[in-house]
Amino acid sequence: LSHNIEGSYRGVYRMLRIAESKVYSTPVAEAEIQVFRHRDVKEVDPRVGADDTCIALCVVDKGLRAIAAEDVLFYDPTPPTWSSRFRQKFRRGQHILQAFLKHRSLLFRKGVFSRLIFPMEFFIYVMNPILFPVFLFLTGWVVTTNLFLAAIAAAGLLGVALVPSLRTALTTHVTNNLIMLTALVQEARGEKHLVWTKIEETRVTDEKAEIPLIHS
Description:
The protein is mainly alpha-helical. It has one domain (2-202). The protein has helices at 2-23, 51-61, 82-102, 112-145, 147-162, 164-188.
């Protein structure tokens, strides 16, 4: 299930990055395949963990484009367990959050990036995780006070549970929001987690490696 959820997330993630690039630029980058001119980015902020995303936003900040090339691929092993997957995505999510907050002034400029792309991504990574527990609370309150709505909600959840693709999509949405909410709390508490630590489960030998699930 962990692999299916990661595959669902990365598939949407990849399509979104390419679509943003075709419109103008994407704010989230992948360091494994990132190329930039040194004269455009001479240094990165050591207080931001996601230097790749920070570089992309620095490039956009200078009026240039940061794109995800549709014909460039790399393989990124997916952690096989829930705990290792949570550690990886929590760390990555917090680092992207740091880069977004550093470049939040881009939200107040003109152009399609500042009016559409960055606000959408900012909502996904920052606002949506904050609103998620509020939505859960309100939903719980409504279904406990109205039996008819409770029956509709139960039927809807049952329908989602019976359809694998919907079940995976819902689980992906819930887990990603919980991960980003945790990252937001840690960032608010001043716990930066800037240093990456190895996730041993993804560092396997060729003999033990599984077939890559995602072309990133």
